[in-house]
Write a structure and sequence with these properties.
Elements: H1 26-38, E1 48-54, E2 60-66, E3 69-70, E4 75-80, H2 84-91, E5 94-101, E6 106-116, H3 119-128, H4 131-139, H5 149-162, E7 174-188, E8 196-202, E9 208-213
Antiparallel strand pairs: 1-2, 1-5, 3-4, 4-7, 5-6, 6-7, 7-8, 8-9
Helix pairs in contact: 4-5
């Protein structure tokens, strides 16, 4: 089986990214772009980001997770610490995040290191989740092999009955991670494939070096 996709072509003409207009701090530049993407139509989850880790088998693996908060420190997401990605992070805390916003012809690639956030912050976010999501976090042995979907649905029904009228506390194996960036590359599509690429690199004095990369 084969399919020739060489005729898939698009001209990128919506914006530009110039050294003279970017923010000095990359998190401020991220915030600017995120606000602009939020203000446009055509993208349901602008906080969806691809997380790439190095697995225990030595292979890289990427999956989409949802960013739940960003600050000057970095990017926060939540997951099961015992999941495949949780185990990979424990062994190799160096990760890569990427955002792709096709409606604005933009991409951001972020390299950084991961650490668990404070337990009280994970508690606070867990309590804010819908009941079904809280129960689901307890029911699912994330990344483990299971015999069928019915096993999960049965466990969810049983757990809902067990916790009826009771507080659902965050399990210790579930919580948040903070990705502290050391490099952020902002990509803006441009005509003739001469795309704009501006990279911020964290220096030893904690200032950011700004450079243009060839497309």
């Amino acid at each position: 089986m084969q399919q020739d996709l060489s005729d898939y072509r698009k001209s990128y003409e919506k914006s530009e990214l110039l050294e003279g207009t970017v923010k000095e701090n990359p998190m401020e530049q991220f915030q600017k772009w995120f606000y602009e993407v939020e203000a446009t139509d055509g993208l349901e989850e602008p906080n969806a980001m691809t997380l790439a880790t190095i697995g225990l088998d030595g292979f890289p693996k990427s999956r989409v997770v949802l960013m739940k908060k960003y600050t000057f420190e970095g990017f926060i997401f939540y997951t099961n610490y015992n999941s495949e990605k949780g185990k990979a992070i424990e062994e190799h805390p160096e990760v890569c995040l990427s955002f792709f916003w096709p409606n604005m012809e933009r991409q951001i690639i972020i390299k950084g290191t991961v650490e668990k956030i404070a337990e009280n912050l994970s508690d606070g976010y867990f309590e804010s989740r819908p009941l079904g999501s809280r129960l689901g976090a307890i029911v699912s042995p994330q990344s483990d092999v299971i015999p069928s979907r019915e096993v999960l649905e049965t466990k969810l029904t049983q757990l809902a009955e067990e916790y009826e009228g009771k507080e659902v506390e965050r399990p210790s194996y579930w919580g948040g991670y903070l990705v502290r960036p050391v490099s952020l590359e902002f990509w803006q599509g441009r005509p003739n494939r001469l795309h704009d690429r501006i990279r911020y690199t964290l220096q030893e004095d904690y200032n950011w070096k700004i450079e243009r990369l060839a497309p």
